[in-house]
Amino acid sequence: MGPEEKTIMTERSAAVFIQAWWRGMLVRRTLLHAALRAWIIQCWWRQVLEKLLAKRRRMVLEFYVQQEWAAVRLQSWVRMWCVRQRYCRLLNAVRIIQVYWRWHSCHSRVFIEGHYELKENQLNIQLEISLGLQACKVQQCIPLPLKE
Fold it and tell me: Record keywords: Repeat included?
């Protein structure tokens, strides 16, 4: 092998080396572009998944709030019903006590006071009747038929 052949071989190996380097650069550039595009797609997909997850969380939270509000409303209605029942029972008891008290006070506190005068042919009556807090005054002149 002569010096010319050596230079041809070195030129050829240099050309092969440059071609390999260039092909490697092209492949690396293509891989870099593919990796960047894949990274962009992955970022977009993560955002989509995060939005879906946030939407699901929001729906679950709204459902929970709705359930809680319904439970609170139902509890308040039940409490109101219990209080109303108790109030009605107490009101009926008060009415019964009032009826008996009024009956008792009317029947136990009757006070009758009266005067009468008999003059010639008429009878003068003055009566005062007290029923508890109420008073009634009666004054009447009654003519008497006398047989002569």
Answer: yes
Q: What is the pLDDT of residues 75-129, one digit of tens each?
A: 999 999 999 999 999 988 999 988 888 887 666 666 778 887 877 777 788 888 7
Distance CA 78, CA 85 (A): 10
| Spatial distance between the Cα atoms of 17 and 11, rounded to a whole number of angstroms | 9
Residue 16, exposed/middle/buried by CB under 10 A (0-12, 13-18, 19+)?
exposed
One domain for residues 70 and 8: yes
Phi then psi for 15, rounded to 5 degrees?
A: -65, -40
Are residues 42 and 94 both part of a single domain? yes
